[in-house]
Amino acid sequence: MSDxxxxxxxxxxxxxRDEIDRIDLxxxxxxxERFGYVxxxxxxxxxxxxAVVPWRIQQVIDKVKVRxxxxxxxxxLTEALWRQMIGWFVQYEEEKxxxxxxxxxxxxx
Length: 109
Prior knowledge:
Elements: H1 13-44, H2 54-70, H3 75-103
Helix pairs in contact: 1-3, 2-3
């Protein structure tokens, strides 16, 4: 694959699509890396209620909105994407913690 092109360097839609595909693959790789930490997080928690930490969720949202603004990206878009991703991860953690708790006879981890 050739070197990445900046948007204005793309001469046709094929090049634009190639760059979008490249970025999408990199984003999936980063989300997979993030998922590894989420997967570790539930293992360190004690019960399903620990999956939802409102202050931490807001802290993450605030940070990505600032970064989005710095990069010229609408912060509302970033917030919507992160809230969706975080919501999925919270459900994942809750389910893993619930199963772990049930497996321990409700005695906790």
